């Protein structure tokens, strides 16, 4: 890099040499050299950028793992002292290494926060189209916080999961206007749980966005076991457990959350013998989502050996997203 940008280069070197970043999902520092006109920052060898990976439609890497890598990189910056604000998250600044891991790079305009400080005051910085709502103010006094990185990380996650789309869409001017207004579309991602995570992250109001630790504990990253535990909890809810006075409104709400996925023949997914063992002979489980949830709950409670032999998340891949959307709409379990 030309020494006309020497301070930017030295800032990146200092940050990348910080011990807290050495074992993280951040691109590794190797060496630094300089001559009369240029400074040279030698970094870990990577194959290509995230943008190149998505644009080339290279399906070798799993999008979910790339999303996790991006957030783990951000956790390394935000959750250890000193806290670091990246301030220039974008697809070109995420590199894919030789092992297929996504690594955060380009810390030239990043800033370390002094201990016990959560805000960095400065003029607007970043790349057009990849800037948080609060950094687009015209008065020049921009307050950068970790929540600023979070919103742009949410844009990045949508970019990954949608195959290269931007949640705020539009051409150059429309895009910036949409970010200011908080006007977005997530039509190119079908996973309702992923959409819930993205919506929380790209919220127009900084105080409403989750911290990176909360992003990483979001249900999008839950294991199959944890998802089934959640479904069992829902199956234990009073309104779900009651088969005497079935709430038709509840059934309609669940059907709406299912977005066209039908559960009126869920019993065909199980062996007749298993259905017979678990079913209530006096009042069989109804063939709707409520009946399935109650069946799953009782299967695990009263027939653990049978439950261990059934992969419920594979049998019903859309059920968790449907039920999660339903419970969020009700304010949680």
UniProtKB/TrEMBL annotation:
Any one GO BP annotation for this protein: IRE1-mediated unfolded protein response
Output the Gene Ontology terms for molecular function: ATP binding; protein serine/threonine kinase activity; RNA endonuclease activity; unfolded protein binding
Protein kinase domain span = 1-221
Its GO CC terms are:
IRE1-TRAF2-ASK1 complex
* Record has Amino-acid biosynthesis as a keyword: no
- All copies of the KEN domain together span 224-333
UniProt keywords (A-Z) are: ATP-binding, Nucleotide-binding
PROSITE patterns in the cross-refs: KEN, PROTEIN_KINASE_DOM, PROTEIN_KINASE_ST
The name under which this protein is listed is: Uncharacterized protein
């Amino acid at each position: 890099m030309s020494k006309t940008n020497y301070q930017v280069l030295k800032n990146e070197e200092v940050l990348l040499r910080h011990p807290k970043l050495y074992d993280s999902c951040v691109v590794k520092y190797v060496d630094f050299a300089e001559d009369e006109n240029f400074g040279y920052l030698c970094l870990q060898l990577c194959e290509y950028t995230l943008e190149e990976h998505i644009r080339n439609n290279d399906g070798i890497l799993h999008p979910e793992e790339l999303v996790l890598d991006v957030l783990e990189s951000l956790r390394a910056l935000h959750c250890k002292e000193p806290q670091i604000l990246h301030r220039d998250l974008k697809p070109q600044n995420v590199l894919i290494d030789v092992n297929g891991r996504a690594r955060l790079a380009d810390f030239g305009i990043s800033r370390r926060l002094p201990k016990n400080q959560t805000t960095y005051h400065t003029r607007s910085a970043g790349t057009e189209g990849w800037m948080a709502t609060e950094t687009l103010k015209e008065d020049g006094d921009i307050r950068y916080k970790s929540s600023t990185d979070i919103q742009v990380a949410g844009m990045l996650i949508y970019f990954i999961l949608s195959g290269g789309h931007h949640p705020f869409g539009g051409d150059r001017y429309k895009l910036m206007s949409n970010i200011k207004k908080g006007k977005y579309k997530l039509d190119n991602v079908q996973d309702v749980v992923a959409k819930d995570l993205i919506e929380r992250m790209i919220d127009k109001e900084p105080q409403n966005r989750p911290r990176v630790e909360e992003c990483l504990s979001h249900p999008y990253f839950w294991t199959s076991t944890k998802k089934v535990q959640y479904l069992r909890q829902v199956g234990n809810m009073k309104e779900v457990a009651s088969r005497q006075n079935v709430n038709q409104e509840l059934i309609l709400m669940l059907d709406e959350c299912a977005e066209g996925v039908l559960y009126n023949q869920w019993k065909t997914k199980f062996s007749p013998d298993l259905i017979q063992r678990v079913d209530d002979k006096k009042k069989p489980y109804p063939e709707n989502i409520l009946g399935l949830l109650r069946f799953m709950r009782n299967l695990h409670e009263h027939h653990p050996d049978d439950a261990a032999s059934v992969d419920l998340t594979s049998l019903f891949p859309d059920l968790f997203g449907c039920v999660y959307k339903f419970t969020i709409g009700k304010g949680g379990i």
